[in-house]
């Protein structure tokens, strides 16, 4: 039996279905959650999306009022939903810890059947059915496969398809990363044939910048870039004070690390942003250069070879200093 059918059989047997995704939601975690939720609804199954923290502003347009509840703002409701669940989908993450402390305790304690649909490498073994495909560009593409391989292509419409299209767009840097395959484009074509208005998705997501957001990005690039040319490493540190100065809203620095990586001669880009006394790091790299090792070894994180993340309790300055020291042992000199 194919995994898609196995998943839908389990859905048929379940009464209380919860869809979860990783902390700090992005286009793929929100898009795959909404795509799956609406697909299940079209099949006649009610479910609920429980995320650890709220949807960023730039993705608000995608969701309806009652589709997503988040643990940060509705701890009691999410706890109850997780405790009553008999089936939990784990989308776009590979380990229970990725949903944050509160929700990971609920997830681990739950006796519900768990299904992982994810594309991050090195999945932990905490689920009953695992559809883990690190070679696939996005979880949204995997949800598309679930729909197609379970024989439900006829259910695709703009409502199910737009969030899935968005998930693929955002996790592939608008179809540019090497993770994009002919299959990705076949599935995108299917989405367009079934009513997804692709230019609307792009406009609503990318052409809706608040002025403060644009100014923060301009400031970061013009004032804060630190380039280590011998190693092709670009660092972009932003303190809490600087973020506040530009009325920072969740999602305002999304994609900024890729802008830094686009600089001529840059092979690695590291964005640091300080929040609640911690510094969150986003790592990106080109080609065969890997950044997940650095994230995992020194910043309590991990991720893909070319896109990883982590966190530290040190200050922004201490983090910068630490990375300056680590660069020679993780990256090779250019033209050495
Ligand atoms: P971002 O920089 O967009 O926050 O994260 C990029 C990628 O790094 C994510 O897709 C995810 O794979 C990974 N990642 C980000 N933060 C963490 C973390 O704290 N732990 C782990 N294991 N991976 C992370
Ligand atoms: Mn993803």
What this model shows, in words?
With 336 residues, this protein is an alpha/beta fold. Helix content is 42%, strand content 18%. It has helices at 3-13, 27-42, 75-84, 101-109, 139-149, 158-171, 182-193, 198-206, 211-224, 240-245, 256-261, 292-298, 316-330, and strands at 17-21, 47-51, 68-70, 87-91, 113-118, 129-132, 226-228, 233-238, 268-275, 278-285, 302-303, 307-312. The chain folds into two domains: 3-206, inorganic pyrophosphatase (n-terminal core) (Alpha-Beta Complex), CATH 3.90.1640.10; 211-330, Diaminopimelate Epimerase, Chain A, domain 1 (Roll), CATH 3.10.310. The strands form two sheets. It has a six-stranded parallel β-sheet with strand order 3-2-1-4-5-6, with helices on both faces. A six-stranded mixed β-sheet has the order 7-8-9-10-12-11. It contains 13 helices and twelve strands. Bound molecules: guanosine-5'-monophosphate (5GP) and manganese (II) ion. The site of manganese (II) ion has 6 residues, from loops.
């Amino acid at each position: 039996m194919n995994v898609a059918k196995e998943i839908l059989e389990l859905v048929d047997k379940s009464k209380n279905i919860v869809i979860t995704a990783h902390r700090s939601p992005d286009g793929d975690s929100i898009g795959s959650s909404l795509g799956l939720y609406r697909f299940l609804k079209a099949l006649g199954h009610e479910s609920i999306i429980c995320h650890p923290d709220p949807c960023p502003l730039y993705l608000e347009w995608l969701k309806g009022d009652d589709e997503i509840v988040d643990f940060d703002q509705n701890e009691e409701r999410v706890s109850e939903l997780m405790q009553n669940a008999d089936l939990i989908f784990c989308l776009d993450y590979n380990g229970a810890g990725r949903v944050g402390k509160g929700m990971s305790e609920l997830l681990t304690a739950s006796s519900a059947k768990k299904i992982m649909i994810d594309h991050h490498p090195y999945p932990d073994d905490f689920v009953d059915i695992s559809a883990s495909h690190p070679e696939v560009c996005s979880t949204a593409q995997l949800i598309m496969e679930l729909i197609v391989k379970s024989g439900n292509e006829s259910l695709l419409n703009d409502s199910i398809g737009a969030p899935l299209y968005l998930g693929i767009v955002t996790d592939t840097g608008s179809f540019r990363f090497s993770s994009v395959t002919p299959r990705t484009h076949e599935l995108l074509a299917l989405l367009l044939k079934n009513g997804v208005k692709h230019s609307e998705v792009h406009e609503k997501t990318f052409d809706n910048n608040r002025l403060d957001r644009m100014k923060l990005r301009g400031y970061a690039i013009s004032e804060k870039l630190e380039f280590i040319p011998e190693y092709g490493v670009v660092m972009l540190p932003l303190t809490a004070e600087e973020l506040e100065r530009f009325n920072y809203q969740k999602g305002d620095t999304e994609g900024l690390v890729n802008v830094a990586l686009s600089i001529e001669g840059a092979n690695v880009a590291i964005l640091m942003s300080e929040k609640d006394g911690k510094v969150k790091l986003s790592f990106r790299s080109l080609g065969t250069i890997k950044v997940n090792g650095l994230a995992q070894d020194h910043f309590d994180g991990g991720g893909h070879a070319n896109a990883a993340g982590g966190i530290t309790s040190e200050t922004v300055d201490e983090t910068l200093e630490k990375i300056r020291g680590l660069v020679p042992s993780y990256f090779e000199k250019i033209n050495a």
